Amino acid sequence: MPIKILAREVVSKIAAGEVVERPASVVKELVENALDAGATQINVETQGGGVSLIRVTDNGSGIPASDVELAFHRYATSKIDLLTDLEKISTLGFRGEALPSIAAVAEMEVLTKAEGDTAGTHLYLKNGNIAKREKRSRPQGTTVTVHHLFRDFPARLKFLKSATTENGHIANLLSQYALAFPEVKFNLVLDGRLTLRTPGNGNIRDVVAEVYGLEVAQQMLELDRADQTPGVAGLTSPPFLSRSSRGYLSFFVNRRWVRSSLLARASEDAYHGLLMTGKHPIVILNVYLPPQEVDINVHPTKTEVKFRNSQIVYTAVQKSMEKVLVKVPPPEIKTDTPSFTPPPSFWTVSGKEAPTLPILRVVGQLASSYILAEGPEGLYLIDQHAAHERVLFEKVLNQRSQQKIEVQGLLEPVNIELSPQQEEVLKKEGELLGEFGFSLETFGAKSYLLRAVPAIAKEGNPAETVRTLLDSIAAEEELSKQDEKIAQSLACHSAVKAGDSLTAEEMRELIKQLEQTKQPRNCPHGRPTMIHLSSRQLEKEFGRIA
Ligand code: ADP
Ligand code: MG
User: What is the pTM of this model?
Assistant: First the structure.
């Protein structure tokens, strides 16, 4: 094809694809506009995962009647003027792309009234063009409604996940903005259900209570470095409160919700040595910087930031977190563990060898974490947690395929608070969890009563098991893999941990069970369960053979 300049319409659709990837991206842009307009109350309502309908209503400044149509032009913005403004952006929006991009892929309605206008303006847009304009009354503020998102874009629709998954993304997004703007009242109604409501009283702990539950809200530690540059404020969890995924790290730079590996590293590094492997803190971190110190114009979705001086930001975050963390008494250390590093190439990492195991005889335990065993082929060092995970994983899947899940009723039902996103997953997968032996019932808003768990999960913290499970299936898009995900999560939670001392009998039993699994050499996540030092290698190392 010869080179030619794309038609305007094509260009706008390509650009729309960058901003509007899924229903949650539409919600994000509309909520950001409402926040930029100074709203103190923002209501979000969706139907069908946001595909049938998204409606965002705010009580902000409104758009003057004379400007409404202009707002739907590409690069039309009231927020910046000159190139130099780009270097010091203080609003969430600035590219003037959102409204036209959404209008390019959906039908849209806007009803808005600005201060000083006698009547509101209602616009109806189809294919990005204004199809109808009329005067309508409404109090000051703006309501934007998006109908039939991607209806004429089957390829985009196909890429979307189920309505529940999209609802989950929307719930998570609103939760993040609510955390960043505690002085704004947020209401989220998904398919007619009130999913999130925040008081808008400026107290971040009250928002945390709505998003993560009261218990978390009460335990979080307060970061206090707001008066310096870079400023750091927010809440962070004490070391005894942690989660099994990174999904509880929320970062805001000048109140913009961002993803940042730098901030993730800085916060997790502050917990170094305080959390067990695989555990992550709950963090709500606000970083304040002069606008010219950070570049947000990296990507159309504005979720990535570049810091001019990332080292300073890293240090500020780490310091402020360490300052509050040192005040919490350190956890007790169970055992003094000798360290043992196998030389590389000396041991064979198992997994590439024959799938079945030879008969093994337990020799002892190393560092309360590894089982030493002898077999016809030499010495085996078995990771007790990984091995037990494999055993439990296959056990759960076997019981499930025979519909014989062993259930353990709880003496006292446990009250669990779920985040809006977790609730969405539960709504969709509640039945599946039931088939795995969980019995959960609604107990007021966001609260659930757990009455029974699968027998293998009877030890440990049942609330944490359920939350981790919901997080792990939220991340799994393929329906056929959800059984596996649940079994994996249950196994990981219920398996013995590194650091647990085992009796000889317990070790023998574990090895026996491992021998009977289908894939004894890998844990369900694919990591090796054992490394092997062959008799031949031993003889070589000791110079008995050449
Ligand atoms: P941007 O936010 O980058 O300026 P948008 O396309 O999102 O671009 O919006 C275009 C303009 O429409 C904004 O600059 C603002 O002036 C106006 N606008 C959009 N939504 C609202 C709202 N909810 N309240 C007030 N003004 C709005
Ligand atoms: Mg905008």
Answer: 0.70
